[in-house]
Amino acid sequence: MESHEIIDIGVNLAHRSFHSDRKEVIARAIAAGVRTMIITGTSLATSETAIRIARESPNRLFATAGVHPHDSRNCTDETVTELRRLAASDAVVAIGECGLDFNRDFSPRPLQEKWFEAQIALAEELQMPLFLHERDAHLRFCEILKRSRKSVPAVIHCFTGTREELRAYLDMGLHIGITGWICDERRGLHLRELVKEIPLDRLMIETDAPFLTPRNMSMKPKDSRNEPAFLTHVLKTLADCLGKPSAFVALETTRTATEFFRIGSQRPRKKS
Ligand SMILES: [Zn+2]
Fold first, then answer.
1. Which residues of the chain have pLDDT under 50?
2. Neighbouring residues of the ion ligand 1, judged by CB less than 5 Å
3. Tens digit of pLDDT for each residue in 49-62?
4. 191: Cβ–Cβ under 8 A, 6 or more apart, which residues?
5. pLDDT tens digit string along 22-43?
6. Which of 8, 159, 225, 257 has the most CB atoms within 10 Å of its CB?
7. Rounded to the nearest whole angstrom, what is the distance from the C-alpha of residue 158 to the centroid of ligand 1?
8. Using CA of residue 216, residue 219, residue 225, residue 227, what is the dihedral sign?
């Protein structure tokens, strides 16, 4: 497969499944053309780990700082203070992963909503982009986001929703992250049509590794763990769906991600 420079905007390199071979995983990703990776923080602990990993490869690895809705039941009043401290790191390019997950309901919904709103407020205070998770919570998610988000850009990561949901997100000015879900011949079919409706300046790609291994890979990994090198499969499938060359889609999604996360440019932040 020819390699194009691409950016994985959501990879859980702080996940325990990468503990023993993270350096090799990163090296394989770079060899495959994934020149930049944004490591997802899903709790205070994984956000800290994500930042530590990112600091080992400045300008190539970056991190988000946030608490996933699954973890919102563990939030306290200190959590936002801690996230604010973590977000001051040069490695941090977004607040999140945060949002609502009414599919698993691992945390009570009122707590999910409270800490989602608090993280939107933090992103606004720091003028940083939002990295968002939404599952089976579209209407409530939109209500909270409309009420609390004012000016910061935001991306719905791992979008798998309906046409109506996509239209609503695009109308709200959101960016859309597409994962290997699109490579799934059972569940991803509707997404293959929908991606044509996403403007290229709002479209980015991600693996969400170690989750969501692309199902259309001819050589599947033995342990079925996804890794950032497999972003090339997401790119290829997406390009096929759009009827465009991979090189073109690589260029466009890389440009969009570079601008969205302000990679390689000074990131002016509001000091309060
Ligand atoms: Zn997520």
1. 270-272
2. 133
3. 999 999 999 999 99
4. 159, 160, 178, 181, 182
5. 999 999 999 999 999 999 999 9
6. 8
7. 6
8. negative
Residue with tokens 């009570």: 108
Nearest to 64 by CA among 142, 151, 126, 6: 126
Picking from 137, 258, 163, the residue whose alpha carbon sits closest to that of residue 204 is 258
What does 66-132 look like in DSSP terms, one character per residue? ---GGGGGG--HHHHHHHHHHHTSTTEEEEEEEEEETTT--S-HHHHHHHHHHHHHHHHHHT--EEE
CB 50 within 8 A of CB 63: yes
CA 84 to ligand 1 centroid distance, Å = 21
Retrieve residue 30's tokens.
């770079």
Calculate how far, in angstroms, residue 101's C-alpha sits from the geometric centre of ligand 1. 9
At residue 23's C-alpha, the angle toward residues 17 and 29, to 5°, is 90
